[in-house]
Amino acid sequence: MSCLQAKDLPTTPRANNMLYEQGQTPNHTPYDEESMLELMRERLSEVGLSCSGLGIVFYKLNLGRLNLQSTTTLSRIKIAQNFPHLRVIDVSHNELTDLRFLSDMHSLVQLNASNNKIQSLLDFNMMDENPSKISLIEANFSNNLLTCFDHLIPFSKSLKRLNISNNNIDHDLVELNVLSNLVELDISNNRISSLKLTELKYLKILNAESNQLECISGVCSWSLQQLNLKNNNIQNLSQFQSLKLLFKLNLENNKIERFEEINHLADLTFMYDLSLLGNPFIIKPTNDSLEVSIIYKNSILFRLPQIVILDQFEVSSEEKVRAMLFHQQQQQQLENK
Fold first, then answer.
1. Within the chain, which residue ranges are assigned CATH 3.80.10.10?
2. pTM of this prediction?
3. What are phi and psi for residue 15, nearest 5 degrees?
4. Structurally, what CATH architecture does the domain formed by 1-159 represent?
5. How many CB atoms lie within 10 A of CB 141?
6. For the stretch 228-246, what's the b/e string if a residue is b when 16 or more beta carbons lie within 10 angstroms of its beta carbon?
7. Structural fold of domain 168-337
């Protein structure tokens, strides 16, 4: 059979499924309950045994890239009743405005709702909002229209990884503090100028790339291990001195003007991966670029000998020796003057 085009097929679930498998955008169709249920059954995967061991259950449902718009039919199907064992649901790349059709999905562990038009984060309309009965660990809401963060309490104990990047968010996200067990948070590509995440005591990975941050004073710092602040407005590095467990730090394309700021990172003994390119203290248009690059690299490695990866390139032991010798030569030249 030759490659099908959307115009060649009727707007049925099976036809849309064929288009999806060929990497095309399916037709939009106002599915009725029967056709939607048929579509869901076709998109189930990851088979396992039921708790009794006598039956077969499916753990994953993929409804991604189906051009779904209305959630009315989805809500009528009552997914929690028809597919009570689902652990992974993908509804990405649709036109959905809410996820209330996921009501009472207590077994759900992983959700991908990226690339939709959702305004309210984790608004599932749980009948039983006891956090101990909810299993959701990972949620991806990137590329949506999030404005409401008022429905997070049911997920306060379970949720560990959250992606809300590319949502045009412009406030301090204080509402996320209720997610007390969050370990990984992606808030990149928003318009955030300050943060108030002081209660996220287990947060290890924070991606805040491409925002408008000048400082991270509003972040609980003692647990952070990986921090991406690329494309922000950071000037002062003294604020990072308390990040004792940090091992990866990206500060590319910020506003660090003084090389001496690097000294504030000297006591971060676990840090081995550092990125600093694109800052004013490196960019010196009037100087020879190669000379500036050599001086920059040798100076960083001498002051921060724990670094193994600098600006995404692995540092060899020979380079560290050269950095030490370079510093000694600089000292001798100063003494001879």
1. 168-337
2. 0.89
3. -65, -45
4. Alpha-Beta Horseshoe (3.80)
5. 26
6. bbbbbebbebebbeebeeb
7. 3.80.10
- Alpha carbons 249 and 11: distance in angstroms, whole number: 49
Tokens 């990047």 correspond to what residue? Answer: 165
Helix (H) or strand (E) holding 326: helix 317-336
If pLDDT is split at 50, 70 and 90, which confidence band does 337 have?
low
CB 198 within 8 A of CB 214: no
Q: Which two tokens stand for residue 262?
A: 């690097």
Measured CA to CA, the distance from residue 254 to residue 232 in angstroms comes to: 5
**pLDDT tens, position by position, 7-65:** 443 445 555 555 555 555 555 556 888 999 999 999 999 988 766 666 678 999 999 99
d(CA 282, CA 275): 12
Asked if 44 and 83 count as a contact pair (C-beta separation under 8 A), the reply is yes
d(CA 124, CA 158): 15
* Residues in contact with 335: Cβ distance below 8 Å, sequence separation at least 6, in sequence order: none
In the structure encoding, which two tokens stand for residue 87, read together?
């652990």
Residue carrying the six token digits 């409401």: 148
**Alpha carbons 325 and 174: distance in angstroms, whole number:** 48
CB-based contacts of 49, cutoff 8 Å, min separation 6 = 55, 56, 57
